[in-house]
Amino acid sequence: MGPYGSGGAGGGRKGGGLHAVNAPFRLENKTIVRLANLREPDESRALEGFVARHAQGTVFQRPAWLAAVERGTGQQALALVQERGGRVEAYLPVSLIHSPIFGRVLASTGFAVGGGALVEDGVDAAPLFAAVEELALRHSAPSVELRGGPLPEQREGWQIKTQSHCGFILALEPDDAAQLNAIPRKQRAEVRKALAGELTVRIGAGAQDRADHYAIYAESVRNLGTPVFPRSLFEAVLDGFGEDADILTILHYGQPVASVLSLYHRGAVMPYWGGGTWGARALRANDRMYYELMRHARRRGCTHFDFGRSKTGSGAFDFKRNWGFTPEPLAYATWTAPGAPRRDADPTSSAHAGRIALWKKLPLPVANVLGPWIARGLG
């Protein structure tokens, strides 16, 4: 018997209290899977170290990300650790996402485009996958989503997707001239026009940076028909990541028109939450924004630009290819409990087309009030 150890952060909540989660998993041999105590500083630091040392470790597997999501959205942070002889050999961070519209899901990780398990070479992660299925049932969550990492391809109830999304990562060039010349001709012409325009750049993480970014991002996602995340999520990420996150804003005669909140991890910059106003396109402010971020990241010592993921064949997919990025298919896995319907919270799903069209017509103040309440459950 392997213990399902001390409760994770927020373990005393209704539907997920310690009385519900401390029962042991049914495991064999000497492998133990337990819940990490993310409120214990030593354990959190140890897991940060595990992510930092692992070749496949990402920013979204860091306990700092889990903690920021919990603080910013109220969605519970949990982490499963697989050990042998007291040594961590696999780790799976998850967010317990509850939505009154889309139900409950364990996502690895919440509000992230990546995540999934980190497993040492030669280790069988089957106990970890069995544990996350049981953890989901104990929390009345009929679904699990793994957004990367080793996937349970042979386990019943799991569905693997390999063609729905692609990632885009490119090495940064050694200087500004080389960076500009590395951009394909048509896109480079747009960047040159942006550089010749009356645009200025501001980088920081202060109160004005945060306020301008959120206003622009909220308008941008409303225009796309998507509810905006709560501002508290962005605040929690910036506060929790310190020097590993910042905001770059493009201004036109002092007026913010485009802005992006970026994450930094192991020599790569990822522009994560970004957007522009209606006027940004004509000003080519987004083109200037991403080029300036490449320059800024290189000055910080970064070697790669991670443009995140996009749905295969989408407009964002084509936009990133226009910048010279080569799409790399990503693999995701979803588990659905026996007898439960599959969860569909994909904003690009045809099932939500009517809602998206309606959302685009909402006045911005109304969208900004309703959006965070809905978006905090999208995960």
Automatic annotation (TrEMBL):
Residues 188-321 form the BioF2-like acetyltransferase domain. Pfam families: Acetyltransf_6. It comes from the Bacteria. InterPro entries: Acyl_CoA_acyltransferase, BioF2-like_GNAT_dom, PEP-CTERM_FemAB-rel, PG_Glycine_Bridge_Synth. Gene3D superfamilies: 3.40.630.30. PANTHER family: LIPID II:GLYCINE GLYCYLTRANSFERASE. This is FemAB family PEP-CTERM system-associated protein.
